[in-house]
Prior knowledge:
Blueprint: H1 16-27, E1 30-31, H2 43-54, H3 67-81, E2 91-94, H4 96-108, E3 114-119, H5 123-131, E4 135-140, H6 150-156, E5 161-167, H7 179-192, E6 195-199, E7 225-230, E8 243-246, H8 249-263, H9 268-280, H10 283-306, E9 311-312, E10 319-323, H11 332-343, E11 345-346, E12 348-349, E13 362-366, H12 371-386
Parallel strand pairs: 1-11, 3-4, 3-5, 5-6, 6-7
Antiparallel strand pairs: 2-8, 7-8, 9-10, 10-13, 12-13
The structure holds pyridoxal-5'-phosphate.
Pyridoxal-5'-phosphate (PLP) binds at residues 35, 96-98, 122, 167, 171, 199, 201, 230, 232, 238, 243.
Amino acid sequence: MSLKLSSRHEWVRKSELRAMSVECERVGGVNLSQGVCDLAVPAPVVEAAKAAIDRGENSYSRHDGTAPLRNALADKYRRRAGLDVDPETNVVVSSGATGALYCSCLALLEPGDEVILFEPYYSYHESTLIATEAVPVFVKTKAPDWSFSMEDLENAVTSRTKAIIVNTPSNPSGKVWTRAELEMIAEFCQRHDLFVFTDEIYEHFIFDDMEHISAASLPGMWERTITISGLSKTFSITGWRIGYAICDAKWAEAIGNFSDLVYVCAPTPLQMGAAAGIAELDDEYFEKLAAKYRKKREVLCGALDEVGLTPCVPQGAYYVLADVSSLPGANSKERAMHLLEKTGVASVPGESFFKGIEGETIVRFCFAKEDDVIEDACRRLQSLKSGRVQAAG
Ligand code: PLP
């Protein structure tokens, strides 16, 4: 037989994030690796989705989303970011933020176009660029505040540079981009005539009086910014696959056409649940959500500090990068495996987020877990201190 895989299959590999979950299941450990949020879904979201199913709203929706969800999103961006979003022409609901970014890249990038990504980066961003034949170009950010140098950014630009990806708050670093940083990016993108793809999926997970700012809201940025986000994290509905792109109508139509081609539409009744959540849950709900996660961050970071895995305390999102240089192993994969076998706590090896060697002594933990799961993980981590081996399970 001469049949074989396409040459494209090499471009996308099984995510390290999923691989660690498989290992964790094998040893019956506590999974703080994948960003799977297992907290309760807000009641209005569940009720509205159930009611939509009961009413028989189970067919395809308009390819770019149901009217209630597009309207709720337009209202939200008007209120939160001061953007004049037309629900008819500026909103594309897709299969998660992941689908929205994929379709945006298909619609706006030529093969060979270079796209700047900040390191550490979310591996799906890199893979999405590669799968759509764009070329990721990395610019380093430095702990503890994950700042970058404008000189590095300028050096990354070539005649092929077409776009930049800004993930705020960021996975995995938790960096919340400041207005001053976004203004530098805005000036840079206008000077070099670049698109900005933002990923704002953790917009409601902000700590320590930081503020979430949408790049599209800065002067002169609306036309070149594709604002990407979704409800997976905000409403703990990662399996519902509801995300979106908000942008100028001249880009939205083509992005919507690709979303139609690949996904047809996001699940209709689940869109109705998401729409109800956006319309009905007030600012107090989102403040409480951030406060709840801040507490989880304190507990996990405290435990990591205590056992000598110094955390880089995040300003946003729900991950923490920790220094595992004290653990045995030649690289972060071996160190993460040692940690899993010794304590039963699964993390993601840092090399999934870095091109350089910085990732070799770092792992990432996710704290989007019920309090008792985090407490269990913290107890297990204590065995590093006592030298006692914690039986997994
Ligand atoms: N963007 C970032 C930065 C993420 O960390 C994740 C999930 O971990 C996603 C997007 C996935 O979003 P969605 O479920 O809407 O596709």
